[in-house]
Design a protein that fits this description.
Rossmann fold; binds alpha-D-glucopyranose; alpha/beta; globular
């Protein structure tokens, strides 16, 4: 029996190390802004909390100091600020601790691209503040029923809270098992965590400490961001060493598919586009291709087929598979490729060199630019996502919504969101894109060739394919309800533990 909801809804503190539009390195930022908003639409009092990076402080509306926290053993004072997201009425708390978070740029890395050496201290501090707010700050007059943590940067919060009988229920979402926040024994000692945590039932992980494992072990409920990835995560191939633990969790660990923010990603209202359109005015979409070619300094020609790619430049995303195909693109002719990304310096270099050699075919922008991402989604004909693994993936969903046909590897959330254009699915008007299985350039190339054939030989069917994607419901509505149910389960199991504790 689900517990009755307080005031008809739950108070949810949503903790993340990034949130769009304050600071963004990947999909987590989009989820951190849009899921709490969707929960509010369902009647819950969801509030976001992130570190007070300088860019976040500049963007938050009605920012004010709420509370001095008086934490011991920190570098300098720590306080809680509060305000609203700039583009929607979502309450946001910022953890103000200048020695830890007053750094411009990427929230995790320094200018050379290496992790900040004090990341363990920074995200332990974040977790300490999360625990404080979760237990109820006297000056705040608000206490969450549920603390919803995301990724390793928040992993120690459920660990710290586990000692408190009066704690809220905890839910931990893994957006990517490959990022674990793993540090050596000396770091564990330096952080001065309770020594008992150095154990197999604690944060110890192969003689090191893992923030991610902490979040998984100590939370009431755990999930990842698609059903297929939840299955993959339980296997040695994808589990990144945590598959055994995840298997043991049984039903406490689930996959809940991300949604996308229909307010931000709407081809009919998007202010970053050269021309708005929808599924009934597909002919207008081409104006965005011309604008994209212009912005990327490519020959402006509506007849060329434009392939887009956006992503962190890391092995996971398989951009090297795309690079291996450049000679074939050149040979084939009529194709242009636009890429926006940032990450691995060697990959960035290789991309820029190739773009310089083939400047009429390939154009690359290093760095993340939100408006440009919108134009790529709208202006491309096809969107490539050859990920080796993909917990959910959002860009393929943005593509679907924008009538840009995705070509994706059959893994994780990609497999859950794109329906391959086979004979039957095309006939049923269900097909939305192209899938391939093997993580190599050859398999990607055959999928691209399949797409090209359909594009060239059956323009009517192609238009239907575009429309099918645009018609699919990718909104947060269904998934936010699944989170709601999962919160209820977490609250119930929390209540059972409470009974056990007091017995
Ligand atoms: C991470 C994952 C990506 C997912 C996103 C949001 O960036 O790599 O697949 O879509 O988190 O959950």
């Amino acid at each position: 029996m689900p517990l009755p909801l307080a005031h008809g809804g739950q108070a949810v503190l949503f903790a993340s190390s990034e949130a769009h539009p304050l600071v963004k390195t990947g999909g987590l930022a989009d989820v951190a802004a849009s899921l709490p908003a969707a929960l509010r639409d369902l009647g819950h009092d969801a509030r976001l909390i992130i570190p007070a990076y300088p860019q976040a402080k500049r963007l938050v509306r009605e920012l004010r100091v709420l509370s001095e926290l008086g934490l011991k053993n920190t570098q300098g004072p720590v306080s809680l600020l509060g305000g609203l997201l700039p583009d929607r009425d979502l309450p946001v708390y910022l953890v103000e601790a200048p020695a830890y978070f007053c750094r411009e740029g990427n929230p995790y890395t320094d200018v050379s691209g290496g992790d900040w050496g004090d990341n363990p201290e920074r995200f332990l501090l974040f977790a300490r503040v999360l625990a404080r707010v979760a237990l109820g700050l006297p000056t705040l007059d608000w206490r969450p029923d549920v603390l919803h943590c995301n990724d390793w940067q928040t992993g120690l919060a459920p660990v710290l809270l586990s000692r408190y009988e009066e704690r809220p229920a905890t839910l931990f979402t893994v957006h990517n098992l490959a990022y674990q926040g793993v540090f050596d024994r000396a770091t564990f000692d330096r952080l001065a965590l309770p020594p008992a945590l150095w154990s197999i039932g604690g944060v110890e992980f192969h003689q090191r400490m893992s923030f991610l494992k902490g979040g998984i072990v100590f939370s009431d409920r755990i999930n990842t961001v698609s059903p297929t990835y939840a299955g993959e995560a339980r296997t040695a191939q994808y589990g990144c060493g945590l598959d055994g633990l995840l298997r043991q969790l049984g039903q406490r660990f689930q996959g809940i598919l991300n949604g996308i923010d229909y307010r931000t990603w709407d081809p009919l209202r998007d202010t970053s586009l050269a021309q708005n359109y929808d599924r009934n005015s597909l002919e207008l979409k081409a104006a965005n291709k011309l604008a994209l070619q212009h912005q990327f300094d490519l020959p402006i020609d509506e007849q060329r087929l434009v392939l887009g790619h956006i992503g962190r430049l890391v092995e996971q995303k398989g951009v090297d598979l795309i690079l291996d195909l450049i000679p074939r693109f050149i040979e084939k002719g009529g194709i242009q490729l636009v890429i926006q990304g940032e990450g691995d310096r060697a990959l960035e270099q290789r991309l820029l060199e190739l773009a310089a050699q083939h400047s009429d075919r390939l154009s690359v922008r290093i760095g993340y630019d939100e408006a440009r991402a919108h134009l790529i989604e709208a202006g491309s004909d096809l969107f490539l996502m050859p990920s080796r693994f993909e917990p959910c993936g959002l860009n393929q969903m943005y593509s679907l919504r924008y009538g840009t046909v995705p070509i994706v590897r059959r893994t994780g959330g990609l497999a859950d969101t794109v329906i391959d254009a086979g004979e039957e699915s095309l006939a049923k008007q269900e097909a939305t894109g192209f899938l391939f299985d093997e993580p190599n350039a050859e398999a990607l190339w055959s999928a691209i060739e399949r797409a090209l054939r359909l594009y060239q030989q059956q323009p009517g069917v192609w238009q239907q394919l575009m429309r099918n994607g645009m018609t699919r419901d990718l909104s947060w509505e269904a998934s936010a309800k699944r989170y709601q149910a999962f919160y209820e389960e977490a609250l119930e199991s929390r209540a059972d533990q409470g009974i056990a504790l007091s017995a």
